[in-house]
Amino acid sequence: MEKIIDEKKQGEALELEQVSTNTRKLFIESYGCAMNFSDSEIVASIMANQGFNTTQNLEEADLVLVNTCSIRDKAEQTVRKRLEKYNAVKRDHNPKMKVGVLGCMAERLKTKFLEEEKIVDLVVGPDAYKDLPNLLAEVDEGRDAINVILSKEETYGDITPVRLNSNGVTAFVSITRGCDNMCTFCVVPFTRGRERSRDPQSIIQEVNDLWQRGFRDITLLGQNVDSYLWYGGGLKKDFEKASDMQKATSVNFSKLLELCAKAQPKMRIRFSTSNPQDLTLDVVETMAKYDNICNHIHLPVQSGSNRILKAMNRLHTREEYFELIDNIRRIIPDCAISQDMIVGFPTETEEDFQDTVSLMEYVKYNFGYMFTYSERPGTMAGRNMEDDVPEAIKKRRLQDIVDLQRAHSEIKTKEWLHKTVEVLVEKESKKSNTQWSGRTPQNIVCVFPKGQYKIGDFVQVKITDCTSATLIGEAVDYSKA
Ligand code: SF4
């Protein structure tokens, strides 16, 4: 596998991993969460062993794979629009092109996808990517192919991902798959199956390999990383049936974090996504113990109202959430905290919404992702709760918390003014090719003049100014060799 630098984007130095003997071309694009982007790197690796190199040119592709998201209706509409685009390219420029859909929408729709979208030749669910070579053989013989079986074991731990659109500095490392929390608005448990964790040895091996290859910042990835639990393989829910030996030698999330931090003491370790009902303080204490575990926790809460949290089947109250926030800030005072929030969940009143506002006022998040409720077919809420909050009210509530979050982000970012922070250089600043852009351990973007520094350097930067989301400064010295 050799690396080819994409000259066009020198500033970002995107690396395309190619096999010189491969002759077929794969165009792969991903939508949705980081899990999907990480899965696409697994798929690219499986396809590389089947004679495919990745291309960024749709018109020359033999195979087009789109990794789909189903979290909101809008995400699915985006995919349908892309399929129209592929249809036009196939008709006008590339009649041999085959099209496959991967990910959560493929798992949700299954054979309906083949019926509804004639351009689609291949439908593959998130746990069936190893079957791609067989499925492609069927497609090459002119038949449609599908595999949407969810697995109890699959973690793809034995596959080395092919890094796609990589800056060569930051990478995702997936550690768990699936989710057992049945939040009533969420399709993930239906599209990604039950929770299972990856062998810690294969995770450490990937971390060591990434360090050797120059990566300096990794994110341990899962729908719900806090419930990571390795006891020799199998579903999380079957842990109680494990032997005493398996239980005694099991590895939970705080142990895994410690193993990763010790394996590469200079590698930045991040993780996402946490769930307040599963995050335990031993994880926060492990973060405090190791300098290279970054002080940022993405801690979706979704609502500030106890009544709505109950209706969402989120197994904690706002008071318990406040206690967790207080403990995090007691153990790690400069820990950045970010959120996911949904407004307009069925039956949400103005009073419920004001509970969300007051929760945000209490926490003052560094940043967040905020959405209006989107009814998902097959979910508990989708089946049993009427989507009764008018669209206009949903939109107004969303705008209110977006504005509030921007004000809080400004307050939190300003806390770093006149301080010196460690920044890992990731790429050229979007605004100026004389400046580098990178992130602090708190996941805050920082830009500063390039000077003699290069991508992959850890740099001490004195903060002189900021916007609501970006720190601006001057480099004062290297941080870590
Ligand atoms: S924790 Fe809830 S919201 Fe998150 S993936 Fe699982 S079911 Fe979905």
What does this structure look like?
By secondary structure, this protein is of the alpha/beta class. The protein has 4 domains: 2-147, 3-Layer(aba) Sandwich (Rossmann fold), CATH 3.40.50.2300; 166-294, 2-Layer Sandwich (Transcription Regulator spoIIAA); 331-415, Transcription Regulator spoIIAA (2-Layer Sandwich), CATH 3.30.750.200; 420-480, Nucleic acid-binding proteins (OB fold (Dihydrolipoamide Acetyltransferase, E2P)). It has 15 helices and 23 strands. It has a 6-stranded parallel β-sheet, with helices on both faces. It is globular, with a radius of gyration of 23 Å. It starts with a strand and ends with a strand. Bound molecules: iron/sulfur cluster. Residues 179, 181, 183, 186, 188-189, 223-224, 275 line the site of iron/sulfur cluster.
Name the helicity range.
25-40%
Question: Can you tell me the CATH superfamily of the largest domain?
Answer: Response regulator
Distance between the termini: 28 Å
The structural domain count equals: 4
